[in-house]
Specification:
804 residues, alpha/beta, Rossmann fold, six-stranded parallel sheet, Alpha-1,4 glucan phosphorylase, pyridoxal phosphate binding, glycosyltransferase, transferase, carbohydrate metabolism
């Protein structure tokens, strides 16, 4: 080990010299980081090439995972841990006078995603590599990504560009031989031989930039291929020489706009067009690449479904269905029927939402203007779908209209979920309840038309990052107590369940939790100046800010709790730290208002001496993977309180439980399956079921009628409306109160009393220190089934038919 560390130290110093022209004495911390990554990458590249060659030589079927997001987080610590070289790298750097832990904090989080969908894609890529299943992930190499969130002194979200590429990305390799042209606009025509020619008005080049995805123990390395964009003619020299410097670079600027940000604000026509252009750009480049690689390896497209599986991660890449069909027909002269059969057998689609407004659709004029040939093919597909639907005895005219790829109500729009559904042989939800509701609600008519196509694949998380990486103290404790088998197969963590009854183990477990909380306390103090109480209950709700996730329910209850403390300051209060984090989409005004309210509440409560030692509130800005890795191990209580039937699955719930947090939550998403595996006694479940929510909607929900039975909440809402929580702007939150009293779409008032009772039960649990610790241990032990390895094994066997 010592010789290996010495040799590695020499390699790192050599990289520092030959790549950056610096001696150790002159190197800055960022130089050391890049030199370390490049040195480790040498080992990775050798394994990467060997994995790729083995896949080709064995003729294995390959998974192609198309996702607009990959929230991969920092890669150095993850990579060296998966290689089993973390100790060696730490020793080598120590001999050079450098601290690995300090270097790791310098690596930026790749700005390639926003929330759960992107993090799920990253977990799946980790599992695919760890299980040695050949795979490519396809996405966009965003220059600035989602956005960097700051909270200004007034408590409002401020969006700034992510600058993760400011110093380059030493993990990536540009593939100059993998370049594809992507067209927009123009017109198409059919020649005398029946061959269709599309002549785009605009062409850009998609250039592949690859990053390695290292599996557990370094046995296999897959590829994350991200597309960047460049103009065919980046500099129009003649225009430049005329003095029109801006015009000379206009094509390149337009191309770079495609890869500038994730989810551009689509509340304007220009933003909406950019988002569609982005989606087609990455889908087209990816499909072209898959077809090209398949032809290179196998020679004929007849075998494409046998050698390539394409998984659509939500509807963002759904235009890929029409793109593959176009390539097969227009470029490779296959008959429509044969091309459609190949397309359908190649694609599979994962749905992530039941909210109708979140199911993507595009106005016909926009799609027709940007992608005229694709719209024609969509019409052709739709003709077949409607013909089949009209012969189905289970579908009445309303049902036929519902399965159409074209929404004819009002502005005519192309329904991308219907296109993905029709063009895939498998359509899956991501939790048992979600898949059931897909069959019964949003996709009920498509389910009647394509019986058996919907299946369930409950989400999972990679234990490499979300236990081994973020919680080394708990990992070491478990390894000592039950052996190391769980690090290779998380199902073995079930052996820890009996340890809940071991007083000595519980004490060590609480010691690890306390140490993790102290680390978070230090980080919060450094970033916000607020000193948290590490002995208080850390009550955590961290996720994308959205009304259905009901951060507002949590905030309103916090306000009620504060008023109770003010009324009885000498009461026996359980000390709590209410911790919120998450980003609101730039165009989502109500979500931004919820963030502002959270900060208004924090300002008032944290400044009140009466609340000191009893209640603190903090909103941590710029939630990302690295911050999550600090929060998850420190959390005591996990808030999973979405309106039942609206959260597809959730994965934050899994990460928090795996790290020993108890869940307070509704019977929604994967909470239901977590209850089945952990045990109902070790979770605090409250509120209406999805069926009860639906029944209340049908009966006519009237939120104001509930207020008489909720006097404390009524008083808080009145104070909020009158400006007591926003003295600088008395009317700031009036519209928020109005929306609750007049509509309350997500039924906060209907669930408030049950939530309040559940929080009181949580307090009683917390006072029983041993009982709390035992429940927390059983939560950890019950999470083995929620590994993304299990999820990927199900996809591999039941959807993709792939093996390593």
């Amino acid at each position: 080990m010592e010789r290996s560390a010495d040799a590695l130290a020499d390699e790192i110093a050599g990289t520092l010299l030959h790549r950056f022209g610096k001696l150790p004495a002159d190197a800055l911390p960022r130089d050391w980081l890049d030199a370390t990554i490049l040195t480790v990458r040498n080992d990775v590249v050798e394994r990467w090439v060997a994995s790729t060659r083995a896949t080709q030589q064995r003729g294995l079927k390959q998974v192609n995972y198309l996702s607009l997001e990959f929230l991969i987080g920092r890669l150095l610590s993850d990579t060296i841990r998966n290689l089993g070289r973390d100790g060696e790298v730490a020793d080598a750097l120590r001999s050079l006078g450098v601290d690995l832990a300090s270097l790791e904090t310098l690596e930026p989080d790749a700005a390639l995603g926003n929330g759960g969908l992107g993090r799920l894609a990253a977990c799946f890529m980790d599992s695919l590599a760890s299980m040695a299943l050949p795979a490519f992930g396809y996405g966009i190499r965003y220059i600035n990504g989602m956005f960097s969130q700051r909270i200004d002194p007034a408590g409002e979200q401020v969006e700034l560009p992510e600058t993760w590429l400011a110093n380059g990305n030493p993990w990536e390799i540009e593939r100059r031989d993998s370049v594809h042209r992507v067209g927009f606009g123009g017109a198409w025509q059919r020649d005398d031989d029946g061959r269709v020619h599309w002549t785009p008005a605009e062409l850009v080049e998609a250039v592949a930039v690859d990053m390695p995805v290292v599996g557990w123990r370094g046995r296999h390395v897959n590829t994350l291929r991200l597309w960047t964009a460049r103009a065919i003619d980046p500099l129009q020299l003649e225009v430049f020489n005329r003095g029109d410097f801006t015009g000379a670079l206009a094509d390149q600027t337009r191309a770079e706009t495609l890869v500038r940000v994730l989810y551009p604000n689509d509340s304007t026509p220009a933003g909406q067009e950019l988002r569609l252009r982005q989606e087609y750009f990455f889908a087209s480049a990816s499909i072209q690449d898959i077809v090209q690689r398949h032809l290179h390896s196998h020679g004929t497209l007849d075998t494409l479904p046998d050698k390539a599986a394409i998984q659509l991660n939500d509807t963002h890449p759904a235009i890929g269905v029409a793109e593959l069909l176009r390539l097969l027909i227009d470029e490779h002269q296959l008959p429509y029927e044969a091309a459609w059969d190949i397309t359908r057998r190649t694609f599979a689609y994962t749905n992530h939402t039941l909210l109708p407004e979140a199911l993507e659709s595009w106005p016909l004029p926009l799609l027709g203007r940007l992608l005229p040939r694709h719209l024609e093919l969509i019409f052709r597909i739709n003709a077949d779908v409607l013909a089949q639907a009209r012969t189905n005895p289970e579908l009445d005219p309303r049902g036929v209209a519902a399965v159409s790829l074209i929404d004819e109500a009002g502005e005519r729009r192309v329904r991308m979920a219907n296109l993905a559904f029709a063009g895939s042989h498998s359509v899956n939800g991501v939790a048992a309840l979600h898949s059931q509701l897909m069959r019964e609600t949003v996709f009920a008519d498509l389910n009647r038309l394509y019986a058996g196509r919907i299946n369930n694949k409950t989400n999972g998380i990679t234990p490499r990052r979300w236990l081994g990486g973020c919680n080394p103290g708990l990992t070491a404790l478990l390894r000592d107590a039950i052996g190391p088998a769980f690090t290779d197969d998380l199902r073995h963590i079930a052996a820890a369940r009996s340890l809940a009854d071991d007083a000595a183990f519980r004490e060590r477990f609480l010691g690890v939790k306390r140490a993790n909380k102290a680390l978070l306390v230090a980080q919060v103090a450094a970033s916000t100046g607020l000193q948290l109480d590490p002995d208080a209950m850390f009550d955590v709700q961290v996720k994308r800010i959205h009304e259905y996730k009901r951060q507002l329910l949590n905030i309103l209850h916090t306000m009620v709790l504060y008023e109770r403390i003010r009324a009885r300051p000498q009461g026996d209060w359980v000390p709590r730290v209410k911790l919120f984090a998450g980003k609101a989409a730039s165009s989502y005004a109500r979500a931004k208002q919820i963030i502002r309210l959270a900060n208004d509440v924090a300002h008032r409560i944290n400044a009140d001496p009466v609340a000191a030692g009893r209640l603190q509130v903090v909103f941590l800005p710029d939630y990302n993977v690295s911050l999550a890795e600090r929060i998850m191990p420190a959390a005591d209580l996990s808030e999973q309180i979405s309106t039942a039937g609206m959260e597809a699955s959730g994965t934050g719930n899994m990460k928090l439980a795996l790290n020993g947090a108890l869940t307070i939550g509704t019977l929604d998403g994967a909470n239901i399956e977590m209850r089945d595996h952990i045990g109902a006694a070790d979770m605090e479940i409250f509120g209406m079921t999805a069926a009860e929510v639906a029944a209340l909607v049908r009966a006519g929900y009237r939120p104001t009628e509930l207020l008489a039975g909720l006097p404390e909440l009524e008083q808080v809402l009145a104070a909020l409306r009158q400006g007591e929580w926003s003295p600088d702007d008395a009317g700031r939150h009036a519209t928020l109160v109005d929306s609750l009293l007049n509509e309350d779409r997500y039924m906060l008032l209907a669930d408030f009393a049950a939530y309040d009772a559940a929080q009181s039960a949580v307090d009683r649990r917390w006072r029983d220190r041993d009982g709390w610790a035992a429940s927390a241990v059983r939560n950890v032990a019950g999470m083995g089934w929620f590994s993304s390895d299990r999820t990927i094994a199900e996809y591999a066997a039941e959807v993709w038919q792939v093996h390593g």
